[in-house]
Amino acid sequence: MSRRPEDHAEASVTKFKDYEVITPPNKLEKAVVHARPSEHYEPDPVARAEQALLTLSNDFAQWMEAECRRLDAARRKVREAGLTDAARDELFRAAHDIKGEAATFGFPLIEPVARSLCRLIEHSPEPARIPLVLLDQHVDGVRAIVHRNAQGNSERKAQVLAERLRQVTEEFLAHENRNRPGYLDEVAAPALAPDPSSG
Amino acid sequence: MVRIDFNRLRFLVIDDNAHMRRILRTLLHGFGTREVYEAEDGAAGLEAFTHYSPDIVITDWAMPIFDGLELTQMIRQPGANANPYVPIIMLTGHSEKKRVVAARDAGITEFLAKPISAKALYQRILNIVVNPRPFIKTKTYFGPDRRRNVNPNYVGPDRRKGGKADIIKQQPLLDKAKALT
Q1: Confidence of residue A153 (pLDDT cuts 50, 70, 90)
Q2: Are A198 and B148 in contact (CB under 8 A)?
Q3: Which of A89, A94, B68, B96 has the lowest tally of Cβ within 10 angstroms?
């Protein structure tokens, strides 16, 4: 693909004793539009994107079914091969994707279960010691909530299930990490993401 | 009033999950972008980055072969590619402090925690386009300035040292690369 004229612009460099401050050419300036408040402009791009996502949402239940099948297949591999690095990574990635997609796809109740499964896999110092039955309970929990969600009115049961799985997982992790004082506190630090609107 | 002409921006989306790529493509098209390229892992992403010269890269963290963090480190190699300054948005389900700090130190421009929303994605892109940050190069770091705000009341060690030197023009990296071939 051919390069554009702005690709050839130069960066300016200010050198200090131990570091350099580099101001790259602003290649994105071309996309900035200064409009007067009275000027007519296109509808809110966020609203347009949300509308586009709404159109796509008809497929979300089907997509979540596919994610559940992927999670189940990964669980079966663990059952067959044990918690090898490859099998564990596959199960983790499947659970991690579900955790990130749950709210977007309209299944917020499975997020805490998927989160608990991710923590179980990620923070067990000896993965081979993870009880397979606990992995099964998480996977089956996700699948049950997804299927019940379609039938509605299962919110309370899903919350109880998620909380019980979380408790058992945290107890297991606390025991397994007893020789790594502070480890779980560190990973349990509050979520932190920079707010771009703060400047 | 500032707005973005998305039609003038070229995006590269790197995510091993086809559903998430579809969502991102839908949101970006909704904003008005026409050019959205996709790759399904870090290796394919690096190849697509070289081929398409995107204006903005959006990458997942957890991916097979090499992940979004390693991809960022490969892109942020001065002289190794045509645009080591490209803005990178890390879109991930990892939102723990330790992870955010690791992503920042690898040189990402913006961090976006899942679940994704149109508003949060738009805000990150707006910030990238309207408020570009300078790059800092030290012995151990190359990436956007990690100090988003100047704190006049800061008390502590001066972690960047040295007096100001002359501003010099840097040879475009592309020309350097051409000279080597």
Answers
A1: low
A2: yes
A3: A89
- SS3 label, residue A157: helix
Q: Which of B31, B60, B8 is nearest to A50 (CA)?
A: B31
Place of tokens 């030290």: B138
Strand B110-113 with B35-39, pairing? unpaired
For A12, the closest of B87, B128, B167 (CB atoms) is: B167
Two tokens, residue B171: 């040879």
Sheet holding A12-15, edge to edge: B142-144, B135-137, A20-23, A12-15, B167-169
* A197: chain B residues, CB-CB within 8 Å: 123, 127
In B115-144, the residues whose Cβ lies within 8 Å of chain A are: 115-116, 118-119, 121-124, 126-132, 134-139
Q: Does B151 touch chain A (CB under 8 A)?
A: no
Give the number of beta-carbon pairs within 8 Å between A and B: 225
Answer yes or no: are the C-beta atoms of A175 and A184 closer than 8 Å.
no
Q: Are A177 and A187 in contact (CB under 8 A)?
A: no
Chain B residues close to A121, C-beta within 8 Å: none
CB neighbours of residue B137 within 10 Å: 17
Q: How far does the CA of residue B13 sit from the closest CA of chain A (Å)?
A: 16
**What ipTM was estimated for this complex?**
0.85
Rg (CA), chain B: 17
pLDDT at B148 over 80: no
Neighbours of A72 (CB within 10 A): 15
Contact residues for A154 (Cβ-Cβ < 8 A; gap 6+): A109, A145, A148
pLDDT interval class at A190 (50, 70, 90): low
Rounded CA separation A29/B19 (Å): 31
Alpha-carbon distance B115 to nearest alpha carbon in chain A (angstroms): 5
